[in-house]
Structure formats: C-alpha cells, structure tokens
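pinned: reference chain
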Amino acid sequence: QNNLAAQIANPADLLGPRASTTIDAERRGKVIDAYRNATPPPPIFTQEVQY
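pinned: its structure tokens
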C-alpha cells in the first residue's frame, strides 16, 4: 500500500476519471497537419557483429 501511495500524484484519480477539458480544434488541426506533412526520419542502419 505504501508503494501505491507513493506513485499516485492525486488520490482522487483512484475514485474516477478527471473531467474533460474543452477541445481546441484549431490546435488539433495544426498538430495533425504537421504530423502528416513531416518528412520521415532517416533510417537507422545497424551492423551485424561478426564473431
């Protein structure tokens, strides 16, 4: 029980979910557009170890 209490920032979270905040549609749209238009990251090359 002590470990669980140390991990919980707000004990009210155990009673139920927090209320939703209002949706910022403009911000959401900008974030989604930025994600869609982003260039993919360069591939990560790995080398196999020769034993």
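why pinned: The chain has a mean pLDDT of 85. The radius of gyration is 22 Å.
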